[in-house]
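Input sequence (437 aa), recorded before submission:
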Amino acid sequence: MEKKICMFVWNHFTNDARVMRECTALSEEGYHVDLICIHDPNNKSMPFVERINERFTVSRVRRYPHLLIWMQGAIRTLKQNKWLAVPLLAGWLACVWLWPLLTIALSLISFALLKTKLKKIVINLCILIRMIRRGIQKKYDIYHANDLNTLPQGIACAKLRFSQKKLVYDSHEVQTSRTGYGRMHAQLEKYFIKKADAMIVENHTRAKYNKELYGFYPNVVHNYPFKAVIETENIVNLHELLGLRNEEKILLYQGGIQTGRGLDKLIEAVPLIKEGIVVLIGDGKIKGELMHKVREMRLEERVKFLPKVPLQDLPSYTANAYVGFQILNNVCFNHYSASSNKLFEYMMAGVPVVACSFPEIKKVVEGEEIGLCIDSHNPAEIAWAVNELAQNREKRDTFSRNAILARQKYNWDLEKEILIGLYDKLEEANSNVSVNN
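Predicted structure, token format:
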């Protein structure tokens, strides 16, 4: 009998490489996987239901409550036709007279939805409820919550029932010490984590931290990409796309343009870099700020920005790079303990790296001799590493060859067996419970 998994993730599932790999691996192993995520109302072509393969389906819940959509539409109409204010007010007063409690309640909810501080809370609460409702519509054997923001959904579906189901908590980040997270999130995880039957973290540094925090050592499933062999004819010509000379060295950063990624330090390093064009592929909250910084420093000819590209297309861009950057800053333990998917994406393309000296990253970079580790808070050190690789082609090419060899070791084809083994144990525990009952 086919076993069914319900997985939750709090995003649109357009560029989530880790979740895609996990769902695909489990579906190929014979599990039927339903992934519940969030629809993007700004993307008209995004389907609410998407079939990835015969055993893996993506189901997206609506982001905004119907009431909010109606209210925003009414306000737009009112702004365009101000004469409607009088009949609308009269209608509201009539409703108060006929159904006072209902009208006042709906009015207060509408007011909450339109107030900025409350609107986000109400929207997120509605998404959470829709996810839970979707998660209990079918009979599942195991629930899988990706990160803290979907753990309540997993608990509600797996544990708040007569016949409890197994629950996996897959923590992609360090929830107790990450950018934008505070004491409340730490307390929530401390309480909710007791309900999980198994926990997954990305590396052993984080597993040890979890042991110190909660008293148990979670399962480690590294965030390695698929082993990739990039065909020459499929490589996107970035030189042509950006109007660069063919001999120009491309110094690449790919990923989220977010605080704490060292990108401000990278731009400050550019005047000290003797040759090469810095190219940043991706989007994020501080992209506008960084573009402004580039203009202020008059570096438009030396720093180029490209929007994010689909995951499946990214390797064909990465292959253009002379050097890749992974220069996280130590702004929280989440960054300090990261393994970082992009490090391995550079590796798959045979691209040497300039990387931060954090434990998990340094262990790979220096252990496999695929790049240089530096103080990522120091623009001068970033520039030194780039200049060292630009001026010493032989060293750069040695690092590149080592990266190609290392991808035989750091790839998802091997790592997925750990995930499958964990699920086999959960299934065995489920079977034993059924026999005993």
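Checked by second reader. The mean pLDDT is 88.
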